[in-house]
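Note to self: user wants both folds in one dump. Writing first protein now.
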Amino acid sequence: YCFYVQSYEAGGGNESRSNLVCEIADIVQPLEDFTLTRVNINADQEVELNWVWDPMSSIDFFSIEPTLVGPGLTTEAGPFPADIPLAFSNEYAEGGLDMQSGRYQYRILATDACDSMFVSTMGYSIYLGGNARAEGVYRLQWTPLALDGATVSSYELYRVLDGQTELLVETNPSLLAHKDLLDGNIQGIGQACYYVVGIGELTLPGGT
């Protein structure tokens, strides 16, 4: 970019122009399509986040901001330096939260080369709870899959017992509970653990 000043004489025809000053401008493209695409809790009780953003933008740092739904307790992990060059699809795992305490809301904060801040779409972890209703009867209920721009198609409830994983039921999007019947008379039966997988389709801002 080059600049100069042009002056004109009031009421006359004289004009004067300054010297020319040129600078190389570093154009920073604003961040677009900043979308959280997945919130997952792995077997180690770590939260795994996936997101996409425009790889042509000039992001320097990002932070992860989880908020415990209900009490509204917010913590922040980061800032972390962004990988250069930026990738379209990204992931992050965090193990410092008590996932048994409830459902968490997540968003990602990004700062570009001009110190402008951008905020991703929201995403929520699925929280599974349960209690024994009678001998060998366990009622399980879970919170819905919630990602901005996502449409849920089904849920899959799994049971892990004595090292074996079994799909118990696949439910429609409106059914968020299930009763599991365990025969307490079976010798050697161990502790039953459960987890839920939410299945859906996410539409990105660009339509993909």
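First done. Writing the second protein, which came from a different request thread.
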Amino acid sequence: LAWVDLGRVYHSMIDGGFDSDPAWYGKSEQAIRRALDLDPGCPDAIFAWGAHQLVRGNKPEAYAAFCRSARLMPNNWLVWHYVGYLFRLSNMLDEAVAVGEHAISVDPSIPWPYWALVRIHAFRHDEARARESLERTRARFGSHPRGFLMEVLLLSHLGRHEEIVALWERFNDPRKEVRKETEFHAVWLYVGFAMYQIGRKEEGERFML
């Protein structure tokens, strides 16, 4: 599994927002190919290959790899989560919701599938179901910082920019310098865009840039 892990680390350099150099994907592919050469039936390597194909835009090969890895390790929540991700990117939102719920049933202790459901319902402007999913995350994971991101994402899709700014200022002193944390960089985009939309353009640009 060492080659699989190495491929995942290379993949995460871009996927995690640490470095945008596409060379990392090339290195990831080489490592995963090496893992598959050594053990073509390794379910983790097959899944990693699917994840690599997905970010490269090759959905059919990604789907085939995910299905194969799901058959080999059906109790791995991450496989189902990525199947749901592929469905969401393919605008198969009903299927994405169903697979997301299945991922939660496989392992209810992992927050990512819950957040994925919030995102899907937000895309659909289905506030009731999005709020329901958001409350499920809060009930299980408390005040996790990503919960704030999910709430501003929902409000942004609903076009309620004033509420985003009010929510931000409720928890952050506007007089203090903003410390942009890499993990939640999307927060700055949503808050900045909201500020821009309500006429606070200079502040909004500082958040977004």
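Dump finished. Worth passing along: The CA atoms of residues 30 and 163 lie 46 Å apart.
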